[in-house]
Write the structure tokens for this entry.
Amino acid sequence: MSWIYLMSAGLLEIGWPVGLKMAQVEGQRLIGVIVALMFMFGSGYLLWLAQREIPMGTSYAVWTGIGAAGTFLFGILFYGDAVSLGRFFGVGLILAGVVTLKLSH
């Protein structure tokens, strides 16, 4: 169950940078900040639950890795962020690290 909490926490981690991006748009500042705070709270709570059984270093690395990779893809798909082979290679390295940590646990 701890790994489900951790994976869910990582997915929620994607939401708070998106909320902060939304907050940059005039007229969406308040809703963007509220969205960011809700995702921060949910992600942090699930991370806390996951750390009951998963070591702190492993859980934090997996949590941030999922969040970083997910935010990267979300930015490309919905905000027109730059696409390059180097950027995808970097995210691939992050995901390889996450998988390695999972398999090593």
User: Anything to note?
Assistant: The mean pLDDT is 95.
